């Protein structure tokens, strides 16, 4: 019969769940609870588990009745009519499926129906939502109720499920990456992939699979705003009410409360996150259905998280950077964000005096005695620059890093560390530091095998990126590495860190220095470029996409300002000015550079008018450069000044404009 065939196929597709079956068996044979409440997101296997419970009950010789929340009328009378067997037979087993469809009966069930069930009978309730907290608050239910949260299948069980579907070994890995241990997603993906004989490692779920999973996992949503809130939750690593408000200002508080009650959304100390499969299908659906809307949502979240990196406390920087990089998980983002959600495998700490001995031992084991001597030298000079990384479970220290800030180097420092000396020489030979600027050198000492693809390297990278994005007046950054895996090196290049040709040596070991000029590509511009990197972009990083900013010395800058003032009326001449490629103009995004430069110079002249001490300078500049006076002699005549006096005012005014704009170039438009 067809029914037998269907049952046999279902039995073949059932794997795992040994713990849940053991709990049910204990209850079935009188050694456990009277009510078993199973909850989990759609497609997680609740119905399959209830079918296995029913088989076990039949084998035990107990009568079984089933109430299906999809078909029963949500009223006490209708429910009791379907479930009346369990009220009159102490051997009966009642299985209630899809309870979320009749969740309104939960209070009545707890207070009125279940207390009438005879001792010995067994009731199993299965639904998407966890039980109301009033079950736990009632001490009477303490021994009678057991709650099971149904989770994804473990990897071994998920592989066994795919094997039962005839999935080839080369396809199994990609299906597991997509579906994890979610049974429905595994079965749907397997059915489509096996049917597609050409499917391989690049298999992706088609829209039929995505639509089916969305219907089963998410279902109908109350409104477009609710859908958008869920899409934001799927895109971000963790969703807080603050993030939701930044991406969806209207009703953020109400929508956050709705999100946290969804059966496929979980809570952690960092915020809310959806089940992995829900995240994947929502992302795939929005990208396919509304690519422009997806990009707009991504950019809003990216801007919010980038600002969080800049403003977070030092203790919160790692999490802020991790959340930002998570947005680029399809763009070869380095970290495996499924390793942990609340507590990391490795913890970062500041260096204490008693840690210096450990630093030397780790540095010696990682890179040898010469490198360890450098670590000890800098630990004495800049102890605040160091961080240590220990395994959370054991407390074992596996890595140290240093972020050395250097505005000038003395002879002892140059001699003590060839790596830092080479970075200093490279900066001086390229575009030297200007007044008030510094460079930074990142040093790391990581015990093998952690220097390859290890979670601690992810944490270290988050700290380095946070240092770069939060630095004030940093001209250059250098990352010194002795040995790193190929993927890590390619990632550094991809994100715009260029390895310089010179390789400093410590003893017998050569080091590679990855450099970035933050004046040529400032933090905001770097973030923008990283945000728009293609999924498979060029290996030499973001700088290849657009022109870098010009890094001028003070003398070069002043000469460019003088020339631009003389050419203020000629837009074509201003377009050729190197000032159009400086930070001054980059801050005026959205404007034509030549027009922006002209507006900036006019505004700088006009600003002098508000200072009584500079009024005479303003008049000389205004007549000379703003009013189209053909000669300086005529300008002096119009001002009623002797030519020498006019020249003195004009020269002082130009110097004042140069100084004001130079200050803004160094410190930004809002600097006082």
TrEMBL record:
Gene Ontology MF, one: ATP binding
Signal peptide positions (record): none
KW Cytoplasm (keyword) present: no
Pfam families per record: AAA_16 (PF13191)
InterPro entries in the record: AAA_16 (IPR041664), P-loop_NTPase (IPR027417)
Domain Orc1-like AAA ATPase per the UniProt entry, residue ranges: 14-187
SUPFAM superfamilies xref list: P-loop containing nucleoside triphosphate hydrolases
UniProtKB keywords: ATP-binding, Nucleotide-binding
Keyword ATP-binding found: yes
Protein name: ATP-binding protein
Taxonomic placement: Bacteria, Bacillati, Actinomycetota, Actinomycetes, Streptosporangiales
């Amino acid at each position: 019969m067809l029914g037998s065939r269907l049952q046999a196929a279902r039995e073949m597709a059932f794997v795992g769940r040994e713990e849940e079956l053991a709990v049910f068996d204990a209850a079935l044979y009188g050694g456990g609870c009277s009510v078993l409440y199973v909850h989990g997101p759609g497609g997680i296997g609740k119905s399959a588990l209830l079918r296995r419970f029913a088989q076990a009950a039949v084998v035990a010789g107990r009568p079984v009745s089933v109430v299906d929340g999809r078909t029963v009328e949500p009223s006490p009378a209708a429910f009791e009519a379907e479930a009346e067997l369990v009220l009159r037979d102490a051997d009966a087993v009642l299985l209630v499926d899809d309870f979320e469809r009749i969740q309104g009966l939960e209070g009545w069930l707890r207070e009125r129906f279940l207390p009438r069930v005879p001792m010995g009978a067994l009731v199993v309730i299965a639904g998407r939502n966890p039980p109301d907290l009033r079950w736990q608050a009632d001490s009477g239910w303490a021994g009678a109720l057991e709650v099971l949260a149904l989770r994804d299948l473990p990897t071994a069980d998920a592989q066994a499920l795919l094997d039962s579907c005839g999935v080839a070994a080369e396809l199994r890995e990609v299906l597991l990456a997509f579906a994890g241990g979610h049974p429905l997603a595994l079965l749907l993906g397997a059915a489509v992939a096996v049917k597609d004989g050409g499917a391989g490692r690049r298999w992706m779920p088609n829209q039929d699979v995505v639509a089916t999973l969305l219907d089963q996992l998410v279902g109908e949503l109350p409104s477009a705003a609710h859908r958008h809130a869920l899409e934001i939750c799927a895109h971000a690593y963790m969703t807080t009410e603050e993030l939701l408000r930044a991406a969806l200002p209207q009703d953020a508080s109400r929508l956050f409360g709705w999100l946290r009650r969804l059966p496929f959304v979980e809570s952690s100390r960092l915020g809310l996150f959806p089940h992995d499969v829900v995240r994947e299908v929502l992302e795939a659906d929005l990208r396919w259905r509304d690519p422009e809307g997806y990009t707009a949502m991504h950019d809003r979240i990216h801007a919010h998280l980038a600002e969080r990196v800049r403003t977070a406390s030092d203790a919160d920087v790692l999490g802020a950077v991790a959340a930002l990089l998570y947005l680029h998980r399809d763009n070869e983002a380095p970290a495996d964000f499924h390793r942990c959600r609340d507590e990391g495998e490795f913890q970062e700490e500041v260096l204490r005096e008693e840690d210096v001995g450990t630093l030397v031992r780790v540095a010696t084991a990682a890179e040898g005695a010469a490198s360890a001597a450098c670590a000890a030298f800098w630990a004495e000079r800049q102890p605040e620059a160091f961080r240590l990384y220990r395994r959370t479970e054991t407390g074992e220290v596996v890595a140290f890093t240093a972020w050395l800030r250097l505005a000038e180097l003395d002879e002892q420092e140059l001699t003590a560390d060839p790596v830092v000396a080479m970075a200093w020489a490279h900066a001086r030979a390229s575009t030297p530091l200007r007044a008030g600027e510094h460079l930074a050198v990142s040093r790391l000492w990581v015990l093998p095998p952690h220097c390859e693809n290890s979670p601690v390297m992810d944490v270290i990278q988050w700290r380095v990126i946070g240092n770069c994005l939060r630095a004030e007046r940093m001209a250059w950054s250098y990352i010194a590495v002795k040995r790193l895996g190929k993927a890590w090196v390619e990632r550094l290049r991809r994100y715009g860190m260029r390895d310089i040709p010179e390789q400093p040596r410590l003893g017998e070991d050569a080091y590679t220095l990855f450099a970035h000029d933050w004046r040529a590509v400032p933090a905001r511009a770097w973030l923008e470029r990283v945000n728009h990197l293609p999924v498979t972009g060029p290996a030499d990083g973001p700088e290849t996409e657009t022109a870098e900013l010009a890094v001028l010395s003070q003398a070069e800058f002043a000469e460019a300002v003088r020339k631009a003032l003389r050419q203020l009326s000629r837009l074509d001449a201003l377009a050729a000015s190197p000032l159009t490629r400086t930070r001054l103009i980059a801050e005026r995004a959205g404007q034509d550079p030549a027009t922006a430069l002209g507006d900036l110079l006019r505004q700088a002249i006009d600003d002098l008018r508000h200072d009584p001490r500079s009024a005479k300078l303003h008049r000389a500049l205004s007549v000379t450069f703003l009013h189209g006076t053909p000669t300086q002699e005529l300008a002096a005549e119009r001002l009623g000044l002797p030519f020498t006096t006019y020249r003195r005012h004009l020269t002082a005014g130009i110097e004042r404009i140069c100084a004001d704009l130079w200050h803004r170039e160094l410190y930004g438009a809002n600097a006082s």
